[in-house]
Amino acid sequence: MRYPNHNSVILHGQQKIGKTSLLLALERRLPAPPFFPVYFNLAGKALLPVGQVLHQMAVTAAKKAGMPPPPAGDFKDNPDAFHKKILPALYQALGSERQPIFLLDEFEFLDTPEEKLPENAAVRALDEYLYNLLTTQTYTDFIFAAGRRIKELSSVVESGFKADLTRFISILNVEQARALIMQEGVKGIPRYNEAAIERILALTHGHPYLTQLLCHALYDQAYQRSQRNSRVTAKDVEAVVPAIIEENDDALSSIWESMPSSERIMLAAIAGRISQEGETLNGTVIAAELNRAGISPDTRALNYASENLVNWQMLEQTGNSYGFFVELMRRWVAQKRPLEQVKKEELRLIDPEAEALYQAAQRAHKAGNDKQAIDQLYKALAISPSHIPARMLLGTILKEQDQLTEAAAQFEEGYKYNPLAVGGILAATLLLLGAAFEKARNYADAIVAYKRVLTIAPEDKTAKIRLDTAQKKLDEQTKQAEAARQIEIDRARREKQTARRRAWAMAFVLLVLLPLLCLAAWWGYGQWTTFNLAEATRTAATDIAIATQVAAAGESAAETAAAINAGGTASAGGTASAAGTANAISSATALAEAGQAAPSPDTELNATPEPGADAALSPEAATATAQAIANAAQADQVSGQIRVAGSDAMQPLIEDLAVAFTAEHPEAQVVIQDDAPVAETRLEAVKNETVDIGTISRELEPAEMAALDGLQVLTVAQKDPIAIIAHALVSVDNLTTAQVQGIFAGEITNWSEVGGPDAPIAVVVGREGSDTRTVFESLVLGQPGIIANAGIAGQESSDRAVRDTVAGRPYAIGVTALRYATESREIPNQPVEVWPVLDTALLDVKLLALDNVEPNTENAASGAYPVTRPHNIVTKDPPNALTQSWIDFIRSPKGQQIIESAGHTPAP
After folding, report:
1. 491: burial class by Cβ within 10 Å (0-12, 13-18, 19+)?
2. pLDDT (tens digit, 9 = 90+) per residue, 455-465?
3. By the number of CB atoms within 10 A of the CB, which of 53, 85, 339, 543 ranks highest?
4. 8-state DSSP, 879
């Protein structure tokens, strides 16, 4: 109580170590003033209503202070009466010189499992009430006595009290233990020789209760023999040990019962394997002993049991080996609590969390919700694999659903831990599984199932009959398969012989006809060469005709040559050649310099001119032909860099499209920039050609549309939801539009105003001008700029940063793209500012429904969820060839599929 920031102390240690004696001594010895100590024992009060427990505390304090006892009715369904009525009255009665200090014994009862407890039981609510009392009533002090360290109690108790001072009540040191044994100056105490004292210390290790128990037994023995003044020897000490174990079972059981089931199993396993005093076992041997008994050593609770027992001074550790701290306790456990007995009593309770999940699964199964029951049973077995009732229930449900293979696997796992309990149902399930295999003509697996039944129940007549039948069917099936295989071998051999005969016949024909074929090939080559020469002549003439028409349309020779050179050349029939290109350029130049007039526009473009005739193309047709040639050549070579900048909400989608596009066009590269935070900057970047594509995740304003001037806007996806998110621990799942408007306008500042906890709301938004914030202000708040006027707790640079900030700040709320709100993320490596006891695993966000409509793609597509926006891209009008290739890819079926896979609705 000397520390200014603490008004409570927690004393912890194993049962019978002297905590109660210490509290009673404090009640007698604490100076008054300044203290007014009140001792109160919480043992046996776990199931009482919390108001009744607090009333008993109030009566005890009032009686000691000489005050009239408070009426019980004041506390019925109203535990607050303790600090609102009783404590103020007690302060007044004591005056300013005395300060109440409550000495609360048996505090560990608050860690009692809550299954099947009354809703208002003290075990459910008293810990939270006392914690609030500690933080609000600083003029009142508390000393708690618990059987275990506070961090080993439940998470609720540990989170509330771990910041307070703790003191471990340990065994007596050697001098203190000797003084207790000798009790010098007390008449009638027998005398001990040195060997007897050493033997007592070896058996009790200075445990005060066990030391007293042993000395009392020695006193009784000496008194019965009328030898009270005789010397007690080591032999006398050893002689009373069996009687202590037999006659003090209740006292030693109280130490045993104070430990959880996993620690009891661990003690029984070690005690059963150790054969002599001082022996230790390493972890591998202990695990083997547990496996031998059908207990999984990988159970989560057992993984920590040995460490806890060392902390409680029940075991002592040397390296990876463990032995009993108190020899007398080892002998009692070995004799009174053998492992097989403890296993039957404790195995299903080895982990309270697994047991609670099993109980919940039972209720779900009875209610017909087998899907929920199966999910809870798998979770329970992940925690405690040897939880036989959970394993049996899971196998039974799967069996009822005709999932016989999985049901048999569950029963097989349970059989390893408890053959007697699981053997019968495992054999019955394997019989059903074997019958199912037979029905599917899978006789080999049926035989395996029936043989397994006979290893479990060797005299099972049904399994013997079914095994014999399945074996006969398998033999017949094997014979049929062998016959079919032989038929197939014979057929293949005949086909091979036929093929060989055909090959010889073909070789003979080729040998005879080869000279004729060579002659025909020589003659055909001559004809083909003549034809190609004529075709090349026609191609050159056509190329010259195209160039002539381009020059006649007013194109300069240099421009014509450049257009044809960039786009490639094409003949009237659509063929391309390097010779045609050179001819076209040369002809266009010559014609332009000579000023030759264009032939008639009526001449068809695709007509093949006769040798010596002039080709006629209209100026329009010539220009179109040159453009088509250029586009075709560029389409064949998609390469270069596409620069994209804009909305961070679109960035994941753009990245998905870029990966697929560059996979098809390895020579192309998509560079995504993040230096254009608002739409105006992106439009200017496209105009200035510092980027090729700007992305905007909203509808453009009329003023923005009017100022495009040489730009075009294309919608890639539509109805993309914007989600309202809150910290995962906020107990609010839905907000109305009016409530959202009030929160972001600064009119609603506490979660309690919308049905949540009594905590201030921290509003986190994106930077001003961001697309997400602009759409949210327009569609939900109805007033741009209202957030900035109301004040905000945090302003972030991107949607993802908004999500991360809300996840790391309890009681925060924000707005972000749905994709960021639902994607997985890493836990940030940063301190939690507002809630120091918060587990970092809970740093996450939750989606809030708006007017009872969940923010998801289905509701957005149907129009049920209204807060949506399109995803647009802005390019030059017209775009360059590479950008056009990108746009064509987005519009292609593959691009549309990528947009759908990313959770977006493609634009029509």
Report:
1. exposed
2. 988 888 888 88
3. 543
4. P
Q: Which is higher by pLDDT, 832 or 813? A: 813
Tokens of 498: 């036929």
Q: List the one residue out of 464, 462, 470, 465 whose CA is nearest residue 443.
A: 470
Q: 10 Å Cβ neighbour count for 676? A: 22
- Which of 338-353 are b and which e, b meaning 16 or more Cβ less than 10 Å from the residue's Cβ? ebeebbeebbbbbbbe
- Note the pLDDT tens digit of each residue in 79-122: 788 888 888 888 888 888 888 888 888 776 545 444 445 555 55
CA distance from start to end of the chain: 73
User: Which token pair is 165?
Assistant: 């001072």
What pLDDT shows up at residue 816?
Answer: 92
For the chain, give the number of residues.
908
pLDDT value at position 611?
Answer: 44
pLDDT of 654 reads: 87
d(CA 781, CA 849): 16
Contact indicator for 191, 155 with CB cutoff of 8 Å: no
Predicted pLDDT at 451: 93
The CA distance from 554 to 550, in Å, is 7
Instruction: Give the distance from CA 469 to its chain's centroid.
Output: 49
Distance CA 101, CA 39 (A): 9
When the pLDDT of each residue in the chain is averaged and rounded to a whole number, the result is: 76
Q: Which residues pair with 442 in a beta bridge?
A: none
Q: Own/partner pairs for 792-796, CB < 8 Å, 24+ apart?
A: 792/763, 792/764, 792/765, 793/762, 793/763, 793/764, 794/762, 794/763, 794/764, 794/765, 795/764, 795/765, 795/766, 795/767, 795/768, 796/764, 796/765, 796/766, 796/767
Residue for token digits 């005299």?
Answer: 459
Q: What mean pLDDT comes out for the span 382-404?
A: 87
Cβ neighbors of 860 (< 8 A, separation 6 or more) are 719, 720, 721, 818, 868, 905
Task: Find the angle CA(467)-CA(473)-CA(479) to the nearest 5 degrees.
Answer: 135
Report in angstroms the alpha-carbon separations of 691 from 84, 878, 883. Answer: 69, 15, 11
- DSSP codes, 344-400: HHHGGGS-HHHHHHHHHHHHHHHTT-HHHHHHHHHHHHHH-TT-HHHHHHHHHHHHH
Residue 826's CB is within 10 A of a number of other CB atoms, namely 6
CA distance 115 to 299: 21
Go through 789-824 and write b for each residue having 16 or more CB atoms within 10 A of its CB, e for each that does not: ebeebebbebbbbbbbbbbbbbbbbbbbbbbbbbee
Burial label, 564 (beta-carbon count in 10 A; 0-12, 13-18, 19+)? buried
pLDDT at position 725: 93
Q: Could you give the maximum distance between any two Cα atoms of the chain, in Å?
A: 150
Peptide bond preceding 190 in cis form (omega within 30 of 0): no
Instruction: Please report which helix (H) or strand (E) contains residue 677, including its range.
Output: none
> How many other C-beta atoms are found inside a 10 Å radius of the C-beta of residue 656?
16
Residue 283 has pLDDT above 60, yes or no: yes
- Whether pLDDT at 382 is above 80: yes
Average pLDDT rounded to a whole number, residues 704-730 = 88
Please name which of 140, 110, 152 lies closest in space to residue 127, comparing C-alpha atoms.
Answer: 110
pLDDT at 448 over 90: yes
DSSP 490-533: HHHHHHHHHHHHHHHHHHHHHHHHHHHHHHHHHHHHHHHHHHHH
pLDDT of residue 149: 52
| Spatial CB neighbours of 527, under 8 Å, sequence gap ≥ 6 | none
Beta strand pairing call for 281-282 and 231-232: unpaired
In the predicted model, is pLDDT for residue 555 greater than 70? no
- Report the candidate in 43, 14, 13 with the shortest Cα–Cα distance to residue 110: 43
> CA–CA separation, 582 vs 577, rounded Å?
9
C-alpha to C-alpha distance for 2 and 8, rounded to whole angstroms:
10
Q: Is the pLDDT of residue 147 over 60?
A: yes
Identify the H or E element spanning 475. Answer: helix 461-552
Is residue 65 a contact partner of residue 93, using CB atoms and an 8 Å limit? yes
